[in-house]
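FAQ: What does the model actually see?

It sees only this:
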Amino acid sequence: MEGIDKKAILKEIIKQLHSGLPPEELKSKFKSLLSHVTSTEIIQLEQELIKEGMDREDIRKLCELHIELFKESLEKETALAPPGHPINILMEEHKIFLNMAKELLNTINFYLEGKMYELREKSGRIIDDLKKTESHYIREENVLFPYIEKYGITEPPKMMWTEHDRIRAIKKEIYGYLDKGNYNNLKDASFRLVEMLSTHFYKENNILFPAGMRTINEIEWVKIRKEFDEIGYSFIEPPSFLGDRMIEEKIISYGEEHYVNFETGNLFFDEIEAIFNTLPVDITFVDKDDKVCYFSQTKDRIFLRTPAIIGRKVQQCHPEKSLHIVNRILKDFKEGKRDKAQFWINLNGRFILIQYFAVKNKQGTYLGCLEVTQDITEIKKLEGEKRLLDD
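And it is asked to produce this:
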């Protein structure tokens, strides 16, 4: 395809997809041309088209058409990574989760005619397992995606995160239909979950993961595996990765003279870190350029944070559906329209307060945004008084 404008071809395909032309017709029309466009080129061209203003939903349709065209050849690909490698772990989980969804659908189909007790009991067990799959998506969003984004591959992770939220929404429907005994809708939602997982996992296995394998280096994969282990797994116990090989990390030793002078006193570096980690709140600091610079490691963090997010744009740490709110708050902070924003939610039976503060120096210059998250469930119950002498 030397001399042919591949981007122009993709634009034409997207335009015709958007106009409603059947994918089958497009497949035959563009197959010979698309067969010369690699997955790497697709990713690069997609990112360029989005920067030019192309709608992400149209890009997603193009991605699905590309997968459909090359499904047979892609399915013949060998394993991307050895056992214990983060990519191998994710792909093994893909198999488990898809089989789980298929088992749920088969169970509903088998017991739907009159055997309601068996249907509820057996499908309930599978759904209990479905609820334990969340760590998989958290590991991708908070560890793998940030590493891939460091190499300029930003759009595929965004698309995958959007699909994660769609998967979560379907699973939420499934939980609700089981609780209400609405088995016909449960069947429909289960079918949609199988369909969604099939296409989503296929995209990750054949487009996103190969891109990660080509860019992320060996030492980074060891770090990723370490962060995966810290988040944990639900259905597999992966073997060790690279045997006993360890990453050599520089240990900076501060002498007693190394401390920070404040107007109201001074603290050693280890004291500062211990204080932040002891505070009854979780804090995250984003600098003036919207990059995550720091987060505290309290004993029971409310929302997960991993070292992979350091240096990452805060916009990439939020799903697409809430991005406009994040940008609006940061814009208001930078323009001095407000200095605080707060929200509160119910999470797993706990009442969570989330606050954002504009951080400024003495001259009023904006330095960044501080996120403070606190579980105030017990605080809300306080009444009367309890004095120090009452302890």
